[in-house]
Design a protein that fits this description.
Layout lengths: L6 H9 L1 H22 L9 E5 L5 E3 H15 L4 E6 L6 E2 L7 E9 L10 E9 L4 H6 L7 E7 L3 E6 L4 E6 L5 E5 L10 E3 L10 H12 L8 E2 L5 H11 L1 E5 L10 E2 H14 L3 E3 L16 E2 L1 E4 L1 H14 L1
Parallel strand pairs: 3-5, 11-12, 11-13
Antiparallel strand pairs: 1-2, 3-4, 5-6, 6-7, 7-8, 8-9, 9-10, 13-17, 14-16, 15-17
The protein binds 2,6-di-O-phosphono-beta-D-fructofuranose (FDP).
Length: 319
Amino acid sequence: MADRTTVQAYVVERAGEPLGEVFAAVARACGEIAKKIRLAGLGDVYGAFGAVNVQGEQQQKLDVFANEVLTQALGAVECVAAIVSEEDEEPVVFDRPGGRYAVVFDPLDGSSNIDVNVNVGTIFSVVTVQGELLASVLRPGAEQVAAGYVVYGPSCVLVLTLGRGVAAFTLDEAGEFLLSADGMTMPAQGPYYSANAATAASWPAAYRAYVAGLVGGALGGKAYSARYIGSLVADFHRTLLKGGVFLYPPTEKAPKGKLRLLYEARPLAMIAEQAGGAAVSGAEAILGLDAAGIHERTALIVGSKVEVEALQRAVVGAK
Ligand code: FDP
C-alpha cells in the first residue's frame, strides 16, 4: 500500500540531503519523461530525430528529449559534478566547487519500442568523484553510491538502491513518485528465462547448452518458460519481481556483448545483488569489472542466484 514517502524524503533520511537532491532531480525529470511518453501519440514525438548517436544508433525524438530533461535537471543540482549519458560522446562537466557526484545514465532505454507503445525505461547510477572524473566513473561498479531505473509501463515505477536494500516508488496523478514497496527481494529461483532467441546460433556453446538445460528441466526439474520484451528495463523489472534470468550473451555481431557496462549493466547488477540476486558477464561478477571507456559494452546475465550461478559455472567449466 503506497504511503506518502517521496523519493527525496526516503533518500534524505537514509543517505543525506545532497543525494536526496540528486534523486529529487532524477524523479522530477523522469516524471516529465513519463508525461511525454504517455501522450506521445498526440504530439510530434514518435519517430527518428534524424541523427545518429555515439553508439552508431538512430536517435529517436524521445531519446533526445529525455537526455535534455535529465541533463537540465541534474545540471541544476549543486552536488552534481558531471553527467555521463549514453547519448553524449563525452561526459558533461559542471564547473563548480561543491560537485561530489557523477550521475551516469541511459536516458531512454529500449527506444526501438517507443513507437509501438511498449515499455521503455531510464537507467542511472551515482558515483562519487574522487580525483579525476573519468577514473571515478570507470572504477568498478562495486563502488557505486546508488543506482536505479524507471520503467514507463502501465504504471510508472522508479526502483532504487542506496546500497542497503531495494525500494520502489510509483508515480501518482500529481506527478510525485511515492513509496510503494520497500525491502524488495528477488526470488532465489524463477520460472522464466529472457533472451533474444534469434541470436542463439551465434552464442558461445556453453550459453546454448545452458538455455537448453533450463528448458529441459536441468535446474531442479523445472521447465523454464520464455519471456522477452526486448526492452532491458522491462525485462529486468519482471526478473526482479518474478525471478529467473535475463541474458544477453556475447554474439558474433557483438563479441563483447551488446549492453553498456556503465549505464545498463552496473546499475541493474547493483539492484539485483541488493535484492538477493546476482549479475555476471560470464565468468565474472559485473560489479567487479573495470571499464576502459564510458561507452564500453559487456555481456550481461542477471537475475536469481540459482540461475546466474549455474550459468557462471557453465561458462567457467567451458574455459
Ligand atoms: P534498444 O536496442 O531498443 O535500445 O540497450 C539497448 C536495448 O534496446 C535494450 O533495452 C534491450 O534489452 C536490447 O537492446 C535489445 O536488443 P536486441 O534487439 O538485440 O534483442
